[in-house]
Amino acid sequence: MADEITLEVARYRPELESEPVMESFQVPLREHWAVLDGLTYVKDQLDGTLSFRWSCRMGICGSCGMTVNGEPQLSCATFLTDYAPGPVRVEPLRNFPVIRDLVIDIDDFMTKLPEVKPWIIRDVHSPVEEGEYLQTPQELDEYQQFSMCINCMLCYSACPVYSLEPDFIGPAAIALAQRYNLDSRDEGAEERRAVLSSPEGIWACTFVGECSAACPKGVDPAGAIQRYKLTAATRSIKDLLMPRSRR
């Protein structure tokens, strides 16, 4: 195995470039080095101006999402040896404005996420002294998969709908809404309904499935969206046939 591998890194320094350019760096090719390790080597040893996000280095925080050889990946969980002999092309996540180098602007996601109210909503809160809201293992299984989202936004980068329709709420936000809709402790499904059932919500999804393929945690946002489509359609028919049943 070679001792080095080439990283082709997208650079965008707004004071220097009007659009991104590619710059090549030679980094050590070590067995356990992830793409993030290669980028850290560049920043520490070759060019301290390189900008990128990272935090936990353990595939938990979701902050180091990048496009690696054309695919949205967590750079801390994508290994250089998998791309040997190289080169490895590293670019920002697609479908987001680029602030600098590999750093994207996530304001759109952060604005849309609270719109689906991804927290437990209850009509009445029991006093603390009455104890916890207990769940059975079966109740936990209903939503646990969708609770694994780490907000890495790889699904948004992979989604062809979001690339064409930026008003689309997006796969992660909808999956997180379903995480709470399916939680036995939650009573807020009706409050989320208007946003999720809007033209920018579930009905914008064409079920390509790239979001689920890109998800590093197996959340299956495409599955969450299709499941809620059934819920929304059923509720619409009920409202039409039995209008008095509306809350």
TrEMBL record:
The entry assigns this protein to a family as follows: Belongs to the succinate dehydrogenase/fumarate reductase iron-sulfur protein family.
- What domain of life? Bacteria
Report keywords, A-Z.
2Fe-2S, 3Fe-4S, 4Fe-4S, Iron, Iron-sulfur, Metal-binding, Oxidoreductase, Tricarboxylic acid cycle
**Pathway(s):** Carbohydrate metabolism; tricarboxylic acid cycle
Where is the 4Fe-4S ferredoxin-type domain positioned along the sequence? 139-169
Q: What is this protein called?
A: Fumarate reductase iron-sulfur subunit
What NCBIfam families does the database record attribute to this sequence?
Answer: dhsB, PRK05950.1, PRK12385.1
Task: Give the Enzyme Commission number.
Answer: 1.3.5.1
Q: Which GO terms describe its biological process?
A: respiratory electron transport chain; tricarboxylic acid cycle
The 2Fe-2S ferredoxin-type domain sits at 3-96
Q: How is the cofactor bound?
A: Binds 1 [2Fe-2S] cluster.
Alphabetized SUPFAM superfamilies for the sequence: 2Fe-2S ferredoxin-like, alpha-helical ferredoxin
Q: What's a single GO MF annotation on this record?
A: 3 iron, 4 sulfur cluster binding
- Tell me which cofactor or cofactors this protein depends on: [2Fe-2S] cluster; [3Fe-4S] cluster; [4Fe-4S] cluster
The reaction(s) this protein catalyses: a menaquinone + succinate = a menaquinol + fumarate
